[in-house]
Amino acid sequence: LEKGIGVSNAKIILIGEHAAVYGKPAIVVPLTAVKLTAVTTAIEQGQLIESTYYTGPLERSIKSFAGIRKLIQTILARLNQRQANFKMTITSEIPAERGMGSSAATAIAVIRSLYSFFGQKINRAMLLELANVAEKITHGDPSGMDAATTSATAPIWFVKGQASYNLPINLDGNLVIADSGIRGQTGPAVATVRERMADFPQETAVFMDQLAELATSTRNAIASQQLAQVGQNFTSAQLILQTLGVSNQTIDHLVFVAQRNGSLGTKLTGGGRGGCIIALTADQANTDRLLAALRAEGVTQTWIQPLAHLNQL
Ligand code: MEV
């Protein structure tokens, strides 16, 4: 086969980041309009990578590409294709290190691209297991949530180690996503929470239980179309995440500004310590007001996702 194309998309965690690492539920939505594509083509000699993170021979790739390199080598070994010659081109609309799942999305697209290139089928369980090979190297102790969502096309209720299932969202209003312009630091943030769990196990477990309750409450509020309750849960989750040490001053400030400018609820999303915030708005007027306020604070990029258009099964 001459060409193998693999596609994945950005993801946004509505609620449940960090708690997901400890087996608590999370609600995660794919942003199917924000895509990542890997294209593998046959070449005469070598194994070449072409991407914004790294361009050059696979075996000489840089440290930040180590997870994807290990993943590609694992796939080649499994498919008995260690000596195959190919070039893989990765193009992404997902900003890196913003909590939007770019690393998992890269893994998913790379797997799909290589399996397609070699004319092999892959089931969902194997897709997620392989993505974890890269995510373990990139993020240390991943829950698998990013891989599950960047490969999905509808919102999911995620619990680590369990089969996730679709969670239809039929709400009016908008999910507004704003990039703080600061790199998120999922690895260090997950490590901070792990240390906290070791030092203050009981207190930290209570925070995890509270985040789990907020996820359940949010699921119920989605089912009963209570947008304002979903927003309040966002703000409650942000306070807990802040206490856990995974927010930072810039995020706290953007949350503060959003809350005064039309947001029904605002929180960080993803690993934290930077990355994006998410906010909920009821209508276009509040969305416009919020976007203007956030842009005045210097956010680098914004996305508006109508909640009614999340279910693209
Ligand atoms: C990162 O997007 C989400 C975290 O919960 C880590 C994980 O679930 O692997 C912080």
From TrEMBL:
Residues 222-298 form the GHMP kinase C-terminal domain. Its EC number is 2.7.1.36. Keywords: ATP-binding, Cytoplasm, Kinase, Lipid biosynthesis, Lipid metabolism, Magnesium, Nucleotide-binding, Transferase. The keyword NAD does not apply. One of its GO terms (molecular function) is mevalonate kinase activity. Pfam families: GHMP_kinases_C, GHMP_kinases_N. The keyword Hydrolase does not apply. It is an enzyme of class 2 (transferase). InterPro entries: GHMP_kinase_C_dom, GHMP_kinase_C_sf, GHMP_kinase_N_dom, Mev_gal_kin, Ribosomal_Su5_D2-typ_SF, Ribsml_uS5_D2-typ_fold_subgr. Residues 72-149 form the GHMP kinase N-terminal domain. This is Mevalonate kinase. It comes from Loigolactobacillus zhaoyuanensis.
